[in-house]
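ok so i was messing around last nite and threw this chain in just to see what happens. nothing serious, just curious
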Amino acid sequence: MERSTIVRVHEGLHARPATRFVKLAKSFECEIDIIKDGKAVSAKSSVKLMLLGVKEGQEVTVRANGADAIEAVEALIAYLENPRAGLEDDDTPNADSAVAAVPQSAAPPPQAAPTSDAGLVGIAASEGVHVGPAFAHFPPEIRSDRRTLAAHEIEPELTKFQAAIAAVRTRMDKALADETLAGGDRGIVAALRDIAGDDTLVGDTVAMIREGTDAVAATIAVSSRLAEEFGAVEDPYLNARADDMQAVGRQICLALLGQDDVSLEQIPQGAVLIADDIGAWDLARAPLKRIGAIVCGHGGATSHIAIIARSHGIPAVLGLGERVAELRSAKVVAVNGNSGAIIADPDAGARADYEKRMGEAKAERDALTIFRDAVPKLANGTVIEVAANLGSLEEIEAAKEAGAMGVGLFRTELLFMRHMHLPSEDMQAETYGALAKAFAPYPVIVRTLDIGGDKPIAGIEFPEEENPFLGWRGIRMCLDRPDIFKQQLRALLRAAVHGNVKVMLPMVSDLDEVRRTRVLIEECKAELKQQGIAFGEFALGVMIETPAAVLIAPALAREAAFFSIGTNDLTQYVMSADRLNPTVAKLNDVANPAVMAAIEMTAKAGVEAGIMVGMCGEAAGRPDLIPAFIRMGLTELSMSPASVPRAKKVVVELGKAG
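result:
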């Protein structure tokens, strides 16, 4: 029995839709294949299904052979023709975030770390300084002296392999049952668990064992082959599955050998974790409160490791490449998460300097705790909202602990980058709604998708651009792709019923961009009303980060409900200096008179129009500049959570000084 159809599942059979499709297929006893472009794979293997790369709009054939073949084909065809299939709530929330990864184009090149007089230099991924005992986490590679099994050894070896699979999945089930496991980590573990029981991984390994290969060698061979297949796929989000395959294969091998992996549970208090890479399974189990700092060969400032480190206030330097191996024998390591500098076995003077800075930072943190619940206001009674910049729900706890008065910038691109498919409207609405609930009644300002050729995401094809920072990105891309933009706007309208949601548009350089967005918002409202879906209202603001926006600020102020000055991009555009280029780093200073003049022009236009003017760049947390920003008329400052208490202190003292 077979039937062909055009796939209508949103973004095709990636991640969660593929997992649900496989789950449905397994509910039938018959053998089932799905065929695309002449290639057939088992519909009961999520690994093979993802490697098939079934996209929305493509034609596939479902073929079944067995007693319930007719029922199976009808059910699976109905699934494939349902645009919402697999995107509804699941009993393993966020399971498709297992591929959360920075696209390869954004990853640092091998050996990207130069040597400085101080030692090694990597990517400063999480601010802070720390010196402490080194804890080298370099798990040994599992090797197998491949041996041929005798006929009588095969069945016992198969039993041993199945027991190892069961042990790995049980261990992961235990981790999922831990209520302290963060939501993002929970999704990663859930996806790893699915891989550990996948029909292809298990079936191909069993086949090799039946042919006489020992279980460890067979597991290594199959997991490595599947990892290579994922690594060869053009989609960078499928590439990330290669690491998952290797990680799961390693866990199965360890279970077969009766060994435990090198555990982070033994890391001493205040130690510096040194690793070439830290896998998802290790991260999920890591005792983060004991880790003093992280140094890693892989990863960048937007990687999962960096996000976790910042959320927990752990200094981190990543992207060292192969040179991280130079730290394997170090006894003590000093880490500067502000500059990216690392010193192995610092001398007495350097160690004393780091310890002094650590002590000063701790004393400052302790002194700033009294400002956690303070309401910073000026002598005239004006309250200055000190908010946090966030990129994920996992960062909420750190922001609230710091005393953030809402969110001044929620970067939605991470939600898009961490999945193998574009996030559905329901997924987005759930995320934005959770954010609004967490900070109510304080406002949360959500930036619409700010993505471009420099940060590719699955589901959007970007043109080749010589300078993507000046190209098809931000509001420009969104208005050209209303199919994507309207989904986000609908999700934000739905989230607005849960709290004080505000929305701002990035990379605005023309009045028409705001007006066209308003038209789309009204269309979304009409659609939601017709569908009977509850929604609220949100204020629409503009992110001021282009010189054009500064120059037309008076006109923009008549169109927008608020301004939020993005100092990172504004500075690089005003100064014509790439903020990622270290050779022109000295030009990228917000305090430059040209940049300060642009900020003042923007503030003047906003104040005269009677709208709120805020700032969401990291400059908003600079104690030396906060008084000037407030004098210009800014009433909202948003920064990393770690900077919130210090900024509150500055404002409170300004208010007392009159």
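not much to say yet. Residues 2-88 form a domain with the Histidine-containing Protein; Chain: A; fold (CATH 3.30.1340.10).
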